[in-house]
Specification:
Largest sheet: 7 strands, antiparallel
Distance between the termini: 30 Å
Structural class: mainly beta
Helix content: 10-25%
């Protein structure tokens, strides 16, 4: 299952003595300056870093960022319209072309009409996610020769990364996960991901007056960072050794996130140090698509840029498996752990770990920030002291069906029809989130939904809205016989449906529409 789920997960933390990293530094005696605005509100430091690492002129960097913003919105809409035929999306190497995979060639014209290039594939992304879920379930028994695994939408496969000479181990792992050779391919790479522990100074905070780690992003009341930095209750001090706060939550392995609640002597700011005496503003947390440019800040190697290679990646660290990470080709070194990842001025995540270095290159993974915000009911602090509610969990928001397609009323009381339809299996005491474990957006107005449950089964249908950092139920319907129908007049926002089983089991159909 996609690890961007809403349920709480047990907290597991590495030993405190093994969890040191570094914050973004400020320079003694220098007054931080406000970031100078550039085209489209992107800080010039970000454009300079993109130019250095992606060999772009400033104009090319601005155009690329504009294309990436357009691509993010287009993918969100097409994902809903294509439904089960959606096979994933990615930007070309130069960032100029949005490719969208479709499992049904009849959908190609819809993709072209949106300005993207259709790519014919045999599997929808939901099928690939299901394959990866089976591998995640077998991950506890993965050989140390397996570096990790991830969904690669461009090749329409799930990739298992094995170390050189361990291809057979990769194939055995795929078989242990109940997958055949069709959707899974094994590739070799000299990768040995590890948390990037720090022993360097900078804008550091200290854990229990011992290890050091990096501040990721400011949130109301504190900041987020890497989970291998400390466990709940661990006390932190700032780089000036003044008492700063306490870890209120953390998770590692399994996840790699931590939350520090600061005291009244510290004021969270919505900026990231640019390692040049200034700051880069943070203005939100909209998730960038695969293929987008991205920049990382860390005290060992400063600001480094590259592209997003894959999402929902699983990494097999020596300390344990971490899943739900984002894979990039950005280099990093020990001491960069816990630092900030930005796409333009949008927060993306905090550094977890990686392989390689910034001399010969490498692979680095980050924990998506939206999941940290959502799981802990946190609010991101943005530039100018403004507060931005957490985006719904990273992993894919979808837009509601276009207003030009009016909802189709039910044909009979025994059927459920609508603009969007999903199926699933339910049993007593179980619940499923639809569509596909994700959410959709509407501009406001009437919403209608219907669940047709199997004979002998009873279900409850809930409509939930993302508000106050979490999904909350705003409408609920239950029925004993026949379809369960729900209608609600709702404001604009992000929504999802939750189907809860009360009795019986079997396959159900959910259909819903929004004006």
């Amino acid at each position: 299952m996609d690890r961007r789920r809403m349920t709480a997960i047990g907290v597991v933390v590495a030993a405190a003595g093994l969890t040191a990293a570094v914050t973004l530094p400020s320079f003694a005696g220098e007054e931080p300056r406000r970031a100078t605005s550039a085209a489209d509100g992107v800080a010039p430091e970000v454009l300079d870093a993109l130019g250095r690492d992606l060999s772009l002129t400033r104009d090319q960097a601005v155009r690329r960022l504009r294309t990436e913003r357009w691509a993010a919105g287009t993918v969100s809409r097409l994902r809903t319209e294509l439904g089960a035929d959606y096979g994933g999306s990615w930007l070309s190497d130069d960032g100029a072309t949005l490719n969208v995979a479709v499992a049904d060639p009849a959908q190609a014209k819809r993709v072209e009409a949106a300005g993207a290039v259709p790519k014919r594939v045999t599997r929808g992304v939901a099928e690939l996610d299901a394959v990866k879920t089976r591998l995640d379930a077998a991950g506890a028994d993965a050989s140390p020769d397996i570096a990790g695994w991830y969904v690669d939408v461009a090749s329409n496969s799930v990739v298992v990364v094995a170390r050189p000479g361990a291809e057979a181990a990769g194939r055995r792992f795929a078989a242990a996960g109940g997958t055949d050779n069709g959707p899974v391919r094994v590739r070799t790479a000299d990768e040995a991901p590890r948390p990037l522990f720090d022993v360097r100074g900078g804008d550091a905070y200290f854990i229990n007056n011992a290890g050091r780690c990096s501040v990721g992003f400011s949130v109301v009341g504190g900041f987020v960072t890497a989970g291998h930095c400390g466990r709940p209750g661990d006390r932190t001090t700032g780089s000036n050794r003044v008492a700063q706060g306490t870890f209120s939550a953390s998770s590692f392995p399994g996840d790699d996130w931590g939350v520090v609640k600061v005291n009244g002597d510290w004021t969270p700011q919505g900026v990231v140090n640019d390692f040049n005496g200034g700051t880069v503003p943070v203005n939100g947390s909209t998730e960038a698509p695969v293929g987008a440019s991205i920049c990382r800040s860390g005290s060992t190697t400063g600001t480094r840029c590259g592209v997003v290679q894959a999402k929902n990646a699983t990494v097999n660290y020596p300390e344990g498996t971490v899943t739900g990470l984002t894979r990039t080709d950005v280099c990093a070194e020990p001491g960069d752990s816990g630092g900030s990842w930005l796409s333009g001025d949008q927060a993306q995540g905090v550094t977890s770990g990686g392989s390689g270095d910034c001399t010969r290159g490498g692979v680095t993974f980050f924990q998506p920030v939206n999941e940290i915000l959502q799981r802990n009911n946190l609010t991101l602090v943005t530039a100018g002291g403004q507060q931005a509610p957490a985006e719904p969990p990273a992993g894919g928001g979808e837009t509601a069906p276009p207003a030009s397609e009016p909802p189709v009323p039910p044909a009979a009381d025994t059927e459920c029809t609508g603009q969007v339809s999903r199926t699933g299996r339910i049993a007593a005491g179980r619940a499923q989130v639809q569509p596909d474990g994700r959410f959709f957006r509407v501009a406001g107005g009437a919403q209608e939904a219907c669940v047709a449950a199997p004979d002998g089964a009873r279900v409850v249908l809930e409509l939930q809205r993302f508000t106050g950092g979490a999904f909350r139920t705003v409408a609920r319907a239950a029925g004993a016989d026949g379809p369960v129908r729900l209608t609600a007049d709702t404001p604009a926002g992000a929504y999802r449906y939750r189907v809860v089983g009360l009795a019986g089991s079997g396959e159900y159909t959910l259909a819903f529409s929004a004006r």
